[in-house]
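Title: Prediction job returns without error message
Component: structure pipeline
Severity: low
Priority: P3
Assignee: unassigned

Description:
Job completed but the reporter wants confirmation the result is attached to the right record. Sequence as submitted:
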Amino acid sequence: MGQPSVVADQATEWSFTQRGLHALLYGYTRFYQGGRWERSSVPETGPAILACNHVSVLDPLFLVASNQRIISFLVAQEYYDNAWMRRLLEQTYSIPVRRDRRDVRALLQARRMLEEGRVLGIFPEGGINREETQKGIAWLVRESAAPVVPAHISGARQGRSDFSTWVHRQRPLLRYGVPLHFHPDAHAAEVLGATMSAIATLA
């Protein structure tokens, strides 16, 4: 199944499948996981980069469930290699990324998505609980001039497997911060530092 020819963004534009998927994720994160979240600070229109800490495979589910705009993610290629996961990820127009090397193609696709006025979800740590931040977010900020919306998830952790994490009830809390606006000439260190600091303050 390929991506829809018309790219939806607002909830009023979602397809039947997208509405059903959002409702399913909302029910799972809110009632099964017992998740709580503050009102999203993602702008109602225009491009935005949603930057969140990464503690488990549940993180993108909470970001999707707490928003009324499509959140597209940079997703590890191995998830796209799974047929049923790929079908779900295509509903959010997510972008597969190869971990073994710098994936320039994925970054260019992400930039194009922001140029189209969409929301891109990024985990600056580059992976679950990794300490090394990725410079890709700084490049995307400079290229698109999109605001960065910081978010922080607490009360969740990664289990021994993705499946064990999905079935274990954890009661996470998701908080949103004020969008950050950077000058087009901002240095990568400034963008990364301010973004990670804003995420940390939400802990």
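Comment from assignee: result matches the submitted record. Residues 1-5 have pLDDT under 50 and may be disordered.
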